[in-house]
Amino acid sequence: MTHPDCPVHGAGLGLRRVFMDPLADQVPESIGFFEVAPENWIGIGGAAGRLFRQLTERHPFVLHGLSLSIGGPGPLDEPFLHRLARFMDEHGITCYTEHLSYCSDDGHLYDLLPIPFTEASVHYVAARIRRVQDLLGRRIAMENASFYTYAPGSEMSEIDFLNAVLEEADCGLLFDVNNLYVNSVNHGYDPLDFLDRIPAERIFYLHVAGHYREDEDLIVDTHGADVIDPVWALLEETYRRFGVLPTLLERDFNIPPLQTLLAEVEHIRALQRRWQERPGMEARRHARG
Predict the structure, then answer these.
(1) pLDDT by residue (tens digit) across 83-127?
(2) What's the topology of domain 11-288?
(3) Extended strands (E) in the chain
């Protein structure tokens, strides 16, 4: 299944500069698309810029921003958004996503902080998302963020806040399966109940990643380890409920050799093939029954 506002397929990989040289020669067939943070590539020239251009000319890309601070108290960085729009046009990239959180307050805070889950915050954030969409001339998607404590003054649940923002902003969802698992452990809720209320029609694509288990009831979302079995199982449950969606592997820390990550990308593809075949298998069972 592919969302019209984010036309990518299969299994994706977050692109790191350390992988640029081997990928410039040949991109493995298992990689259906790449994701980069635009902040790391806007204005980059020289050899790195040329390699990046070669890849964007030949392969689908999506952008996952780091600095928009959609829930922050300061004004939107509209000069950045104008540079972003030019960057997307230059490279033929149509899909941009960001975190449903904030990361600045009179300066960059170097972390993704939770927005208070309130009706006022819904209106504030949704208006800012609509402004971003107007400036870029396209719908964007917001990612369900991991968080470690509810922001002061919160009045509603995480899923209620997420759905209210998506509806009022009329934007898409980058659904991070690992973040759902992390939050379900840290805040003691059933991830399947959360899945029940996800608006499937808004999902652009999925993220999976690894994390660090600090304690029995505390997981730190590091993107610095292999994906664990419960997250893989939650990904399969997502496919079962919503169909096979484009799925990207994130790895931002403790980055292993490319071949190690490709094994996880291949695992995503294997799960996708399994669930693509499942409807036909079910139909044959019913016909025999």
Answers:
(1) 999 999 999 999 999 999 866 344 444 456 778 899 999 999 999
(2) TIM Barrel (3.20.20)
(3) 11-14, 31-36, 61-64, 96-99, 102-104, 108-113, 141-143, 172-176, 203-208, 212-215, 218-220, 247-249
